[in-house]
Design goal:
61% of the residues lie in helices and 2% in strands. Helix 8 runs antiparallel to helix 9. It starts with a helix and ends with a strand. It is mainly alpha-helical. It folds into 2 domains: 73 residues, Serine Threonine Protein Phosphatase 5, Tetratricopeptide repeat, CATH 1.25.40; 125 residues, Tetratricopeptide repeat domain (Serine Threonine Protein Phosphatase 5, Tetratricopeptide repeat), CATH 1.25.40. The radius of gyration is 21 Å and the shape is globular. InterPro entries: TPR-like_helical_dom_sf. It comes from Leifsonia soli.
Length: 252
Amino acid sequence: MASRLIEDDPELAHQHALSAARRAGRVAVVRETLAITAYAIGDFALALRELRTYRRISGSNDQLPLMVDSERGVGRPDRALELGRSVDRSTLPADVQVSLAIAMSGARLDLGQPEAALAELEIPQLDPTRAFSYSADLFHAYAEVLDDLGRAGDAARWRELAQRAEEAFDQANPTDELETIDVIEEEVPLDPEESSDEPLLDEDELEVEALLSEDDGDDLVDDDHTDDQAGDDDQADDEEGEPTDGAVPTEH
């Protein structure tokens, strides 16, 4: 339910997520959903606590970009950068790498470092010749930083590339929809072997429980960079005939 409401009514989505957390606080997706709704309503401190709990329960770094952005939200861009550097980016899926780069770039801008912000975005996925689901967001972010640097012409070209990438991807995926997850609110029985004296919530969860009870109810990328990337892609396409990684070629 929360996932369906978050765009139209984030406050109501947050209330549903709080209700689910009361019933299934040990389920990773429940804590993740609560974090996302908290972020959506601007409660970055709660979002950060819930994301930490979700990460500990699930063992996943897929919400690292949102954690970085939440650190920015509570006014700690330095800690946001430190957190973003704490994980080997090569271990993350491509879309998460892109989201992380955008969040890290934002933290650099918070610190008044536009050149460093631009460098954060110059990653292999910044390829103007191919379109993925994340390409338009990355290109737009790159254009915004170029604007901050006074490079209006370059920014305009990257915005055009972003629009072209979005159109190319949409045409290739006309029925593509975001995945949604419904959280079923039901009591989860305890394992009979668990001690009845064992606390149901850990320290982070106790903090949330307290909250719950209160809340009732440069140019287009460097030439060497893009040429190397395009060369690798061309070689792979020549060998296999067509790309198999979900990329959509953009028109020149």
